[in-house]
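Risk register update: the risk of archive-format incompatibility is retired. Evidence:
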Amino acid sequence: MSIDQNRINLFADATDDHQWIHVNEEKAQKELPTKSTIAHGFLSLSLSVPLAGKIWTVTGAKMMINYGLNKVNLKGLETIYSFSKKNKQSLPPVEKWNPPFCGDIDMKILRNGKWFYMGSEIKRPAMVKLFSSILRLDEDACYYLVTPVEKVRIQVEDAPFVAVSLNKVEVSSKTGYLFKTNLNEEILLSKENPLTIKIGENSEPSPYILIRKNLHALLSRSVFYELVDLAEEKIVDDKKCLVIESMGECFNIHEVEKE
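Archived output:
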């Protein structure tokens, strides 16, 4: 769903709320820290009606009536929207925000990367991407959705992202491997975004690549097999290992069994 200036202007006309922070693009560019207009908080709130139908499904009802909301704080909505509008290629600075913990919500990310809310899959990619942009893994090993005014805990079955494709690239005269996640983020395997392998109780490997800070993507089975096919045998710490080299760095996949 797109919220452009035309939609903001129409809402201003409908509500007779023509504050310059909403409708005066030239003045906003000069005087607001966002360098752009800010959508009305009630515009953001009103969009919960069409968006709700994209998040969950209600069955067995003949009619639904909206009788109000228990708790609404528009600051978080406006901040996230304003930031995303200004910084289309950047992420909100969730690490700098320290809002109060507001409890758990019934939201879960499955091992395959799909997001669910109250048992129903969130199928709109734009909404999943918005939620993922405010996802944070804290020191208590729990995942939270964070805005400037609240922090809620969600469940993550494994990793919050999944690497779904792999391409060989040349960057600054170096060979590298570029992964794409289920949310179309591209991550170059490198010292800054390394590969790690965890061995489970069933001795099966679970490969991950770092996406940002402490958030990882689980490599899909097909991508991992492709990576193994591209790997080479090398001696690491006097052991023969299967290694993938990317951007001048070597990443150990596993030790080769002795014949």
